[in-house]
Amino acid sequence: MIHIGVTVDGILRHGDVEPRTLLVHWLREDLGLVGTPIGCDTSNCGACTVLIDGRSAKSCSVLAVQVEGATITTIQGLAQDGEWHPVQKAFKECHGLQCGYCTPGMVLASVDLLSENANPTEDEIRHGLEGNLCRCTGYHNIVKAVAMAAAEMRGE
Amino acid sequence: MTETVERTGGPAIGRPIRRKEDARLLTGRTNWTDNIQLPGTLYMSLLRCPMAHAKIINIDTSAALAAEGVVAVYTGKDFPELPGSTCVWPVTDEIVMSHFPAICLDEVKFGGDVVAVVLATEKYLSVDALDLIDVDYEPLPAVVDMEDALKPGSPLVHSDKGTNECYVAKMPCGDYEAATVKADRVVKRRFINQRLIPSPMEPRAVVAAPMGMSDEITIWTSTQIPHVLRVLLALLTGIPENNLRVVAPDVGGGFGAKLQINREEVLAVVLAQKLGRPIKWTETRSEHMVGTHHGRDQIQDIEMAVMNDGTLVGMKVDLLADMGAYLQIITPGTPLLGMFMYSGIYKMEALDFTCTGVYTTKTPTDAYRGAGRPEATYAIERIMDEVAFELGIEPLELRKKNWIKHEEFPYTQIAGLTYDTGNYEAATARALELFGYDELRAEQAERRAAGGPVQLGIGISTFTEMCGLAPSRTLGALKYVAGGWEHCTIRALPTGKIELITGTSPHGQGHETAWSQIASDIIGVPVEDIEVVHGDTGRAPYGMDTYGSRSLAVGGQAIKLAGERLVEKARIIAAHQLEVSPDDVEFAHGTYSVKGDPEKSTTIQAIAFEAFTAHNLPDGVEPTLSGESTVDPMDFSYPHGTHLAAMEVDTETGQVTLRKYVCVDDCGVQINPLIVEGQVHGGLAQGIAQALFEGALYDAEGNLLTGNMGDYLLPSAVDLPSFITDRTVTPSTTHPLGTKGIGEAGAIASTPAIINGVVDAIRHLGVNDVFMPASPQNVWRAIQTAQNGGAA
Ligand code: FES
Ligand code: FES
User: Does the predicted model carry a pTM greater than 0.80?
Assistant: First the structure.
């Protein structure tokens, strides 16, 4: 067992983990942060995406021991003081989710995308979300939502 | 005669209300089955066989049993009789049924079949122990190809049955032989509707737990069918049905994959009862690929007898349908769900349908979005283009010549279904306008004349489908062992809030929002005051669940009737309170008022409280305020639409690009257009993915080559364009709300539109078909084959 200390959704968490424990399993099973789901076992789907030090990462392809000392934001910590992030608001407004299983990953990948590119084209949005699969929406409304959130965040 | 109307709606119905479901889904406060962690849980993992077909000689579990954390290991010998699934649709009297074991006893019949079960105190330890189980297999020959499987001397999937032929179902309508005699010619094609893996983003999961105070076992499972599942689990395990409570918590997509009873559910229940502890199993994605049923997989031999002027006379459909190794819930019936739809929207004098179900050593097939209807629509819409080509008629003109005109509804088509309403002219006109059909045809001609490598093709699909399974008597006549009714109870609680208890079981469709909209208009309370209760046999005891675009088409009727009954009961109490006769009380927007004296009024919320205290009810009126209804639908409903695809094909590389996609659907009255549009988008993505990307591939030994998400190509955002969608509204006349159903339309219509477009782009090279998915390889091959003299 290896000891780690990680700030997750604004709270410092300590834990003893096996070296092989995946970050997503530590979040879900040990910390009870079950808002981050698992969709595959080959790092293809992106459902498990979280922000590690502000950058999106697939938490199924990171070991818990690798995030020692890092700051992690999951979907459960994205809203600030009860106020939703513009991406969350836009997903609702544009009906960018159906079953919602891909949604935590999509939202966090979008947050990262917009922090890199404040005014993405449709093509850039599609490429930016290439690592996140959705089986319900056909992506149409997700793309719309990201563009709407971008406009909102630019103050338009 | 059928009427297409301007958009309809009441105060809530017809409005694009943002979904109630979204708040929890967008903030991670969800309740997926895999989130449930109960004290003392044992984690179940399954040892799956690595080959398609083998005898089990010996299984040594001793090392696994001795491993850390392992509580039990079971093999088929521990449960020799226990079924892992069952088939409720024996489609013919002569059908060869099969036994699907919970754990295989002496033979495995597809790669992924289960040979042993481990229970351990921790998830990782449970999976670790699988490696310590030693299984001695004696390989048997795989049965992979359906046509080979039917040849005499083929190895058998079920050796005790003496054949791989599961059933032959026939439905002759009209006289096809006479049609061929009358016709000027018969156009024949063979289409392959490839095997697909449904792939909802949430893998399946189940938790079964004895709940202490009684003999109840609660089963949380990622399912579309909690109610049906409860009945089947009771029948298969022998545990009294009243001791089983099935809960479908938040479910992350289904698409048919979760319309099933699975061995993991049966095992979890049986082991929870046996050990008295919670049992939990969560599927890995790679397990989903082999262990959860697949969809489609048909070889379609299609003939169309036609006159030279383009008039269709008769159609012959001869299908081979791959069942896989065992029959699951509706495996044999799935291809037959399309049986009535092969004539599509067209008039003809004969339809001769035959389907042969074939056992192979592959994962069982069953429902996948559309279930039988996408296959039927593919066949009719593809053959229409082939007929158009052979006769030299514009494909759209051929369709117009043969489709049912809007003034001809209601129309009883050749398979005996009566289409209540439709307006193919209106939907098509709107689609052509949005598409810029004439301009694109002109561009196509220019590109063809210029002879560049990238050619343009236009694909058309003018489809209909049948939704709302189904009148129970019809299902009985088809040998389906259940009804097609749906239930709703609406309770007005003492505090004035409303509880709407539905038997439908959503997994992304937004029922919580849409059902609230319907009830809001009927009982006059705000949408936000209505809580929709679903997916729990403890709280919502009656239901037939969600599949086949039935939830609104059938469940919507029950909501309407339950709401009306509640309003009528409250009217009697209101009249008593207002001291007038019920006939003198008017009801609007949640308020009862005296006719001619609107000042004298009371609200439905106030009546709810009166019904609760029961201090002053009229004689003979029982306390509490609710309305209840169980509705058996009068008929199916028949949404339709026109889909158009502009496809670019690089004739040198075979690369296909979807340039523009337009669809105009007619699903009757829309409760929430935002949700309707979302359903269309998602359906399109899946139908287009069948045409361009997806396919479950097996090698000659029966190994699944596309066994994980890296190898099975689910489309990402870069693989699809934005869609141009619209609707016409031709209300159904057999459904009281005028609604039809929209869950599957996109998936049904789009596949042939895409392939028609691809073939249209390279028709001048002699190509008349492209195998799906139309990957660069498959397109390039079709071109090469055609250029070398043979049709593809
Ligand atoms: S769970 Fe699929 S990428 Fe992490
Ligand atoms: S909303 Fe269901 S997978 Fe994206």
Answer: yes
